[in-house]
Design a protein that fits this description.
By secondary structure, the protein is an alpha/beta fold. It has 9 helices and 10 strands. Strand 5, helix 5 and strand 6 form a beta-alpha-beta unit. The chain starts with 5 loop residues before the first strand and ends in an 8-residue tail after the last helix.
Length: about 290
């Protein structure tokens, strides 16, 4: 089997920005990673030419990391399902900028939350998401927007495979749409990740595994179907190490980047330890 694609969410900080992200990921033993192109909670962005893109690419080449396996996450403040005209305009404007930045950096995956049905029906929210994605794709040429499976808290859409496939069916350019499967989120939404064959068979039947582009590999603090979305370190949650190991090594998922978004412990990330135990396929108590 070829080398597994396993990494984590890393921050980007000045003065070296993207280069810092890559260096962090390599220090954790990752060969893929995910990052925001600015703060996730707002749309303030430094100019793209200050992100150290050439140094970033050179560093990736030196460490044999394929930029095509990296993942950008869109700001979580946008709601592409909103019925509010101003919020819709702002969401499209912000996402156009993220698409432009993702393409300029050289990545092809942009993870996006499907939005929230605030004060409207799920059907209207889903149609709003479709309309906005189609508008974006008139501008977008190469970036695959990956809708994330959500836990189902509050008014979220994308809480099940049926809602995601409705959006995908409405998107005209199917080459520019995909799905990011989050193991914590599907657990909290009611899909039992321990039954990996059932999960992947349902995904194939309802959406199609060809649309699965990214996996967020997280344990969960919550019981099945809790609709809460609280991530846990690998092996310390209700999903468990043995189950998450299956998602790393399953042949059907081998070419898909797996990204850890697990919590820090004692004020530090545990990505290095988590990646190591997953690569070793052997559980040890690393959270001490």
């Amino acid at each position: 089997m070829s080398e597994i694609l396993l990494g984590c969410h890393v921050s980007m900080s000045k003065p070296d920005y993207l280069l810092t992200s890559a260096q962090l990921a390599v220090s954790f033993g990752a060969n893929t990673f995910m990052f925001y192109t600015g703060a996730p909670q707002n749309s303030v962005r430094i100019p793209i030419d200050q992100l150290k893109i050439s140094e970033f690419r050179q560093y990736l080449t030196e460490h044999k990391i394929n930029i095509q396996n990296l993942v950008v996450h869109a700001p979580y403040i946008v709601n592409i399902a909103s019925d509010d005209r101003f919020k819709k305009i702002m969401a499209v404007r912000i996402l156009k900028e993220e698409i432009k930045r993702t393409e300029k950096i050289g990545c092809k995956y942009l993870v996006l939350h499907s939005g929230n049905a605030i004060g409207i029906s799920k059907d209207i929210a889903i149609q709003n998401a479709i309309d906005n994605l189609n508008e974006l794709n008139q501008f977008n040429k190469n970036v695959i927007i990956c809708l994330e499976t959500m836990s189902g808290k509050g008014t979220e859409i994308g809480r099940n495979f049926d809602e995601l496939t409705k959006i995908i069916q409405g998107v005209k350019n199917k080459k520019l749409i995909g799905v990011c499967l989050d193991t914590c989120h599907i657990n909290d939404a009611g899909y039992d990740p321990k039954k990996i064959d059932d999960v992947l068979n349902q995904f194939e039947k309802i959406i199609g595994l060809n649309y699965l582009k990214v996996i967020h590999l997280n344990d969960s603090k919550n019981t099945l179907g809790a609709h809460k979305d609280r991530h846990e370190n690998i092996g310390y949650g209700t999903i468990g190490f043995d189950t998450l190991l299956k998602y790393v090594y399953d042949e059907r998922l081998k070419n898909i980047p797996k990204i850890l978004e697990t919590p820090w412990w004692n004020d530090k990330p545990l990505y290095k330890e988590e990646i190591q135990v997953l690569k070793n396929k052997q559980w040890v108590n690393y959270r001490t």
